[in-house]
Amino acid sequence: DQQVKQNSPSLSVQEGRISILNCDYTNSMFDYFLWYKKYPAEGPTFLISISSIKDKNEDGRFTVFLNKSAKHLSLHIVPSQPGDSAVYFCAARAYNFNKFYFGSGTKLNVKP
Amino acid sequence: DSGVTQTPKHLITATGQRVTLRCSPRSGDLSVYWYQQSLDQGLQFLIQYYNGEERAKGNILERFSAQQFPDLHSELNLSSLELGDSALYFCASSVGLAGPSSTDTQYFGPGTRLTVL
After folding, report:
1. Comparing C-alpha atoms, which of B71, B62, B60 is closest to residue B93?
2. Which residue positions in chain A have pLDDT lower than 70?
């Protein structure tokens, strides 16, 4: 049962443009959402998070948007840089279940 | 460097064998999580320990078990290995339990790549 879905396995963007990565979830009990970046042969690295009481959180070039009614979150990277090329995972937590659920990842390629 | 260490980095073994993967959490973190990532798949949550006690279970097979020791390091034991167990196994740690107002973040180790031949 895939409770967190990333329907785009890959995304290609030109350097300097905006990258938008999407994530959908099904469990209305999720209260905390995170994005991780993963380079080959490394573990995922925490990028940015958002609590369900907010609809936007910004950290430098990275902004996460949460639309609770649509059960949708997105990660915006502006401007995109070649070093951003990696696999991005979204994750969600249901505090009462004390578990984190991860999407299958989106591979971002930022072309110079 | 996340501060989470995992050993070994690579492990090659045969079907039917048993292996142990080790994880040392970041200093001060009490929670340890184990995940499995098979080829082209997302991260599948296996199990979580908090301060030595099992707190949450995911899609962990009965052939797999884990424990967290008093010094907070954790081991994941995989037995009667099958070809399908070949995967990357990640350990993550966080400060504490996920509570209603918690914004606890997990930090991941570099992973152990298990190959079952």
Report:
1. B71
2. 1, 95-98
